[in-house]
Design brief:
14% strand, PFD2, disordered N terminus, unfolded protein binding, chaperone, alpha+beta, single chain, 3 helices, PFD_beta-like, Helix Hairpins, two-stranded antiparallel ribbon, Prefoldin subunit 2
């Protein structure tokens, strides 16, 4: 009967762990997207900054292209870039917290990752390396 209780419990632990990994992956993805936007804002700023302040400039606002001047657009693009930078900074803080939570979770349930290549035939010299990790269950529920 004890094994019946351990299996769902172990599965629940693994589900939570996979959820944590998925959340970390999503945060990484968001950071990458936002950093790319910050980079694009920097390119725009560098391109229009040396221009005449009264020169026509077009800006997309809510899906609508509007005509402005460089003088009007430049501060707005700078503000947007700074705002994106703040969001990226907060996401990095969240990422550190989530990584720490995940590390604590791994330590608590003695979860460790094993490379798939290690679990397959070790004598096989494959040229196509598979770096994808395989989740190994909680150590407490393994046969000792």
């Amino acid at each position: 009967m004890a094994s019946l209780r351990e299996a769902p419990n172990e599965q629940a632990i693994l589900n939570v762990y996979e959820s944590m990994r998925s959340e970390l992956s999503q945060i990484y993805s968001n950071i990458t997207d936002l950093e790319m936007q910050v980079s694009e804002h920097s390119l725009v700023i560098n391109a229009i900054q040396p221009l005449d302040q009264t020169r026509k400039c077009f800006r997309m606002i809510g899906g609508v292209l509007v005509e402005r001047t460089v003088k009007e657009v430049l501060p707005a693009v700078n503000r947007n870039k700074e705002g994106l930078g703040e969001v990226v900074k907060k996401l990095y803080e969240t990422l550190v917290e989530k990584k720490n939570d995940m590390t604590e979770f791994e330590a608590k349930y003695k979860i460790r990752l094993r490379k798939q290549d290690d679990s397959n035939e070790e004598g096989n010299n494959k040229k196509e390396g598979n770096a994808q990790g395989v989740l190994v269950g909680a150590a407490a529920s393994t046969i000792q």
